[in-house]
Amino acid sequence: MLSKEDTRRLAALERQLRRDDPDFCARMGGGNFSVSSTARPALPLFIIAAVITAVAVVLGVVGWWIAASIVATWAVITAAAAVHRLRRHRAETAFRQP
Fold first, then answer.
1. Potential cystine with 33: which of 22, 42, 86, 94 (Cβ 3.0-4.6 Å)?
2. What are the transmembrane regions (predicted)?
């Protein structure tokens, strides 16, 4: 059993190896580490958030306030996820550039 410090060091070494040589990690681990989960920018999420916001406005105009507030909350959560993904994407691309 590894201590917390050893586990932290091992995780840091694994991250560094995945950044330095993703092909080697793909060959050894059987996965493709060169493509991260946040490789794409968050544009589709922003579009979805805009559509959901439009639906919330329409529901508000019609007078369905409870449904409008639920859908507006959903739009805010989607927009927050898009902003988080965009910041993470920018941080990763800034880190990769020499």
1. 22
2. 42-59, 65-83
Claim: this prediction has a pTM higher than 0.70: no
Contact between 56 and 75 (Cβ < 8 Å)? yes
Q: Are 74 and 66 in contact (CB under 8 A)?
A: no
Q: What is the pLDDT of residues 7-51, one digit of tens each?
A: 888 888 888 888 888 777 777 765 554 445 545 667 888 888 899
Q: What is the pLDDT of residues 41-73, one digit of tens each?
A: 678 888 888 999 999 999 999 999 999 999 999
Q: Rounded to 5 degrees, what are φ and ψ at 55?
A: -65, -40
Provide the strand spans (E) within the chain: none
> What backbone phi and psi angles, to 5 degrees, belong to 2?
-85, 150
How far is Cα 53 from Cα 60, in angstroms, rounded to an integer? Answer: 10
Closest CA to 76 of 52, 57, 59, 55: 52
